[in-house]
Structure formats: structure tokens, C-alpha cells
Design a protein that fits this description.
47% of the residues lie in helices and 12% in strands. With 442 residues, it is an alpha/beta fold. The strands form two sheets. It has an eight-stranded parallel β-barrel with strand order 4-5-6-7-8-9-10-11, surrounded by five helices. Strands 1-2-3 form a three-stranded parallel sheet. α18 (394-398) links the parallel β10 and β11. The longest helix is centred in the C-terminal third of the chain and has 27 residues, at 415-441. The chain is elongated. The two termini are 42 Å apart.
Length: 442
């Protein structure tokens, strides 16, 4: 939608909308540029033109895809050599109107997720004026992008001005469905993935703040990834099986997982620790390798019954957490989820950990991350509960302030139960955010 394409090559709103839809279907993110010409501005039709362009293109965006959209406001009369940029005051009015349109016509989640950027002759001299505007989330630059020093100055200015706002933003809530070896035929895999696709398409709006990742066995990773639609992810239940050389027969590496489209990998599950006897050191080394290859990691930690009864639960958990996160880069905590799995509370007929105990553990884990990696790491790292979560008890745990999601086992094999768990998580957390906003208003 850049002005060169609209006004020189004659691309229509409908054609741009069709390209938006095709790009989304292919897994690409989209920067949609909209802008009014001088005659539109002088005739008082600037907002009408902008909203018309945005509305046309919005038809090609999936309801859960607005976090993959950047809308760039390009006042055509304010670009080019010697042009006078749009004033900061007018830019804010336009961006606020665009955000309001998204909120009214698409929803609050879309308005929060979609980034609005300004692209009218931004340079290192005026970047600070625009960066401080509440509805400006970034820039598109032309000539300044061809000068490394100027580009660095603009980016540094943006980061400096937006840092206080960015510190308040947390990642989406997270749910992982660990299939283990429960589905052992391709027909069963296809049936479950099809049901999940259909359910998530129907409930996309209600689930916009929940990131769902399916963890099938190795044999079905690529099959599942090729069939999943929308913003659903696929992850691996493990990476590597043995330390020596990390290239033994039968081993699956992080590079392989990345190449077939995996986003997440589970490490440290109790099956791996307590049955296959994986040690803290091996898990830590695998975690470092996976993060370095671009994967996100769900690190599972948990105490056994004898450790709990001996009063060593927190000691055990912090030892596992410290060992597992030794190699996590400072800027990678948003790609880490730590799952608390009380080993004594999992399995058929097990009694789940009480919400009070779960919150006490999660608060201790958050405190450890804050003390050892900083406030931002503690905000970005998601703490997940994974002790026999079901559709019936999900609300109790979702209300806990330090629970950011769940890993489910059996519930992940039943679409109705999985959907219920995810919707409960989203609804409870939305209520908490609304209540917090009301208190701020008071």
C-alpha cells in the first residue's frame, strides 16, 4: 500500500486487500501503508480516505492476526526531498483515530496488538517529537535508512522514549498441549488437528490473548505444522537424547526442529528427568543450544513426593531453575516459559496441587528470576502450571497472579476440554486486566 504503489502504479484498495490476505495465508507479516494526498487534506477528507484504506485492507486480516500487522501512516504531502513533515499534534490525532477505528470495528485486542507507525519524512532531528506520541509505535524511514549513523540514532531515540511503556507489556498467556505418545496413527493426528483448527477459527476473538502450542511426537511434527492454521504453533517434546557429540544415531537436533517449523521445545519434563534420568546439566546444555538456534523453550521443573514431604520442594525447584537457565541470554527471557510440574500431582487420579500452594511456588520462582535476571526478565518469562489441569479446575489456577498459562496432557486430546481451558484462561485474565484498569482510573 505504499504511495508509490497506490498513486504511481495505480494499485487499488481491493487489490491491496487481496495481497494482504495472500501474505497472511503464506505466513508473512504485513506493513500496510495508508495516506492521503494534498487535495484530500485540503478538502477536509483526510480521515475519510485513511479509514477507507484501512477498512478495505482489514478484510484480509484474520481476527487473530493483528499482532502481525503494522499500519504505517504516510501523509503523501509530507514526503520527499524538502517536504515539511506532518506536525506531531496532527500525527497523534490521526493515529488516535486509526486506533479508535480498530477498537470499534475489530476489537480491543486488535487495537492493542496492531502497531501504528509514522512514515512522513522522519529523520534523526525530529524522531524524538514523534516517538513521544502515545499512539506512535515506530517509524518507516527512507533516506535515513541508507545512513547507518542516522538509522541508529532514530532507533535509539525510539527505544529511549518508549522504554517506560514497553516495560509494562507482557507476552500473551500460554497453553501447551503435550500429546506424549497418546496418538499413534496419522489418521488420529489429522482428525484432532482438523477439530482444533475449526474450533480456533470460530473462537479466534475470545482466544486472541492466548498462545497455543501443540506438542505431537517427533514423527508427526511436520504433518501437524503443515495443517495448522492461524496463529497456532507446533513444538517438539524434546531435543536430543544423549549428550556425547549431540549427533548420535536417532538424535533430533534443534536445527532439524527449526527447519520443519517448530517454534517451541519441551525440556526437563518429569518423564525425561525421572524415567530417562536426564540430569540438570544435560537439560541446561540442551536449553542453551535450543535458544541459540532460534527455538523458544518450555523448561519444566518439579519436585517428587519425598522432596515435598521433606520440606525441600522450593530448594529442589530453585536448583533446577538455576541450572536450566544458566545459559539464557539477557534478551531471551520472552522465549522462555517455566512450567511448574509437581510430580506428585500428575497422572490418572492424582490430586492437583492446591491453588494456594501453586501461587506460593510461582511467586518464589518469579522472585528468583527477578533477583538473578532482573525485573524485565521476570515480566517476560511466563510461569506455567502443569499439574493435572482440567476444564473443571482451570479457573482456580487462572486467577492466580503468577500463573501465566498451562501445559495440559489428557485435556489437550479433547478439543472441547482444550478449548474450555484456553477460553477460561483468557476470560479470567481479561477480567483482571479490566479491574486493574478501573483501579488506575480511580
Amino acid at each position: 500500500g505504499h504511495s508509490d504503489r497506490r498513486n504511481v502504479l495505480g494499485e487499488s484498495d481491493a487489490y491491496i486487500a487481496e495481497k494482504v490476505a495472500k501474505c497472511f495465508a503464506s505466513g508473512l507479516n504485513v506493513n500496510l501503508t495508508i495516506g492521503e494526498k494534498l487535495e484530500d487534506r485540503e478538502a477536509g477528507r483526510a480521515l475519510d480516505v485513511l479509514v477507507m484504506q484501512l477498512g478495505a485492507a482489514a478484510a484480509g486480516v484474520p481476527s487473530d492476526g493483528w499482532d502481525r500487522v503494522v499500519v504505517a501512516y504516510e501523509p503523501v504531502w509530507a514526503i520527499g526531498e524538502g517536504a515539511q513533515p506532518c506536525s506531531p499534534e496532527e500525527t497523534q490525532r490521526v493515529h488516535s483515530a486509526l486506533r479508535g477505528w480498530l477498537k470499534e470495528h475489530v476489537g480491543e485486542t486488535a487495537a492493542r496488538s496492531c502497531r501504528l507507525v509514522y512514515t512522513g519524512s522522519v529523520n534523526e532531528g525530529n524522531a524524538a517529537q514523534f516517538a513521544q506520541l502515545p499512539d506512535v509505535d515506530g517509524f518507516v524511514v527512507g533516506r535515513a535508512g541508507l545512513d547507518a549513523e542516522k538509522l541508529l540514532s532514530i532507533c535509539s531515540t525510539l527505544v529511549e522514549r518508549k522504554a517506560p511503556e514497553r516495560q509494562q507489556v507482557k507476552p500473551k498467556f500460554w497453553v501447551g498441549a503435550n500429546w506424549k505418545c497418546s496418538i499413534q496413527t496419522s489418521q488420529g493426528v489429522d482428525a484432532l488437528v482438523g477439530q482444533i483448527n475449526d474450533a480456533w477459527a470460530q473462537e479466534a476473538g475470545a482466544l486472541a490473548d492466548v498462545e497455543l502450542c501443540l506438542f505431537p511426537p517427533y514423527a508427526y511434527l511436520d504433518r501437524v505444522r503443515r495443517q495448522l492454521r492461524g496463529q497456532l504453533h507446533v513444538g517438539s517434546q524434546n531435543a536430543w537424547d544423549a549428550k556425547p557429540g549431540f549427533n548420535s544415531t536417532g538424535v533430533v537436533s534443534a536445527e532439524m526442529l527449526n527447519s520443519v517449523g517448530c517454534k517451541w521445545v519441551l525440556l526437563g519434563h518429569s518423564d525425561r528427568r525421572n524415567v530417562l534420568l536426564e540430569a540438570d546439566g544435560l537439560i541446561a546444555e540442551k536449553m542453551t543450544r535450543c535458544l541459540a538456534r532460534g527455538l523458544s523453550v518450555n523448561l519444566t521443573i518439579g519436585e517428587k513426593l519425598e522432596e515435598r514431604q521433606a520440606g525441600k520442594a522450593i530448594e529442589t525447584l530453585l536448583r533446577q531453575l538455576e541450572a536450566g537457565t544458566t545459559g539464557v541470554p539477557a534478551d531471551a527471557w520472552s522465549r522462555v516459559a517455566v512450567s511448574y510440574e509437581p510430580v506428585w500431582a500428575i497422572g490418572e487420579g492424582a490430586m492437583p496441587c492446591s491453588p494456594e500452594d501453586a501461587q506460593a511456588v510461582h511467586a518464589a520462582l518469579r522472585g528468583w528470576v527477578r533477583d538473578h535476571a532482573g525485573d524485565e526478565a521476570a515480566r517476560q518469562c511466563r510461569l506455567i502450571y502443569t499439574g493435572s489441569v482440567s476444564a473443571e479446575n482451570a479457573a482456580q489456577y487462572a486467577r492466580l497472579p503468577d500463573v501465566d498459562g498451562f501445559v495440559v496432557g489428557r485435556a489437550g486430546l479433547d478439543v472441547a476440554k482444550l478449548l474450555s481451558v484456553c477460553k477460561t484462561l483468557a476470560a479470567v485474565k481479561a477480567e483482571e486486566c479490566a479491574a486493574a484498569d478501573n483501579l488506575k482510573g480511580v
